[in-house]
């Protein structure tokens, strides 16, 4: 799977470079995994601006301007928070495009309606934001890996 992630990251890099776009990431459950995949590619300084690892709700508020009231209302694992995280990454960086991940990688953390493996994604540019909510199977490592892959696949669709 590592080869697949590296190839996906390289494809994202080429797509961003072709459009002269800079990327920012806002990650929670992946702990910087999307940023790591992207910066694994030589030359990523040409299309990657920065990454925010906002694991706690407080850091989501402080670094990405995600409203505490929104997290209280919808939960930190929600499409609303994923959208706000992506928009916050754009607002607090030099990037043109952002991707966000927030989820429950497990083995604990499940809440009613949000089992382990629930992940919400956000992709943003300008005023356009796309979100998704998926539930992945597997252990913590598998959920995180699937999340990185889906975030990169979503970026490719979003910027093309």
UniProtKB/TrEMBL annotation:
Originating organism: Pseudoduganella violacea
CinA C-terminal domain ranges (all copies): 6-158
Keywords carried by this UniProt record: Hydrolase
Single GO molecular function: nicotinamide-nucleotide amidase activity
Domain of life: Bacteria
Designated name of the protein: Nicotinamide-nucleotide amidase
EC number(s) from the headed UniProt entry: 3.5.1.42
Enzyme class: hydrolase
């Amino acid at each position: 799977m590592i080869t697949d992630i590296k190839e996906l990251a390289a494809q994202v890099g080429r797509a961003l470079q072709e459009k002269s776009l800079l990327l920012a990431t806002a990650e929670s459950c992946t702990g910087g995994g999307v940023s790591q995949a992207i910066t694994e590619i030589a030359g990523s300084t040409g299309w990657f601006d920065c990454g925010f690892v906002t694991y706690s709700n407080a850091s989501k508020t402080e670094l990405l301007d995600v409203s505490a009231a929104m997290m209280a209302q919808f939960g930190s694992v929600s499409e609303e928070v994923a959208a706000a995280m992506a928009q916050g990454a754009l607002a607090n960086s030099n990037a043109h495009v952002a991707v966000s991940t927030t989820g429950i990688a497990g083995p604990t953390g499940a809440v009613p309606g949000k089992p382990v493996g629930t992940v919400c994604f956000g992709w943003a540019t300008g005023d356009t934001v796309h979100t998704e909510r998926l539930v992945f199977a597997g252990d913590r490592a598998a959920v995180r890996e699937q999340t990185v892959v889906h975030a990169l696949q979503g970026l490719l669709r979003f910027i093309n």
